[in-house]
């Protein structure tokens, strides 16, 4: 799980990337990095989001979706 300090660093890194994209007139890339920064900021302030992020991210940071167990599928 990321610490509050790590979330802040990731948000800052995304904002730096957005500033660089803006200076190079890459506006679509700038919008992408600003959206990423906003997401990191949201994740750092919402405790529920932290636990959800932990459940759907493996050790190398790759995100995946939870799949219901077979017993849960039968109940549907």
How would you sum up this structure, described in words?
- By secondary structure, the protein is an all-alpha fold.
- Helices cover 71% and strands 0% of the residues.
- It has one domain (4-57).
- The chain has helices at residues 4-23, 27-45, 47-55, 70-75.
- The radius of gyration is 16 Å and the shape is elongated.
- The mean pLDDT is 75.
Class from helix and strand fractions = mainly alpha
Rg measurement, Å: 16 Å
Poorly predicted runs: none
Q: How large a portion of the residues is in β-strands, by DSSP E?
A: under 5%
The structural domain count equals 1
Please report the number of helical segments: 4
The overall strand count is: 0
Query: What is the arithmetic mean of pLDDT?
Result: 75
N- to C-terminal distance: 32 Å
Order of helices and strands: HHHH
């Amino acid at each position: 799980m990321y610490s509050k300090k790590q979330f802040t660093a990731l948000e800052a890194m995304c904002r730096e990337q957005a500033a660089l994209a803006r200076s190079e007139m890459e506006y679509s890339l700038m919008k992408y990095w600003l959206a990423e920064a906003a997401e990191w900021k949201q994740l750092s302030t919402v405790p529920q989001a932290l636990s959800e992020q932990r459940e759907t991210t493996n050790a190398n940071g790759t995100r995946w979706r939870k799949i219901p167990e077979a017993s849960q599928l039968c109940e549907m």
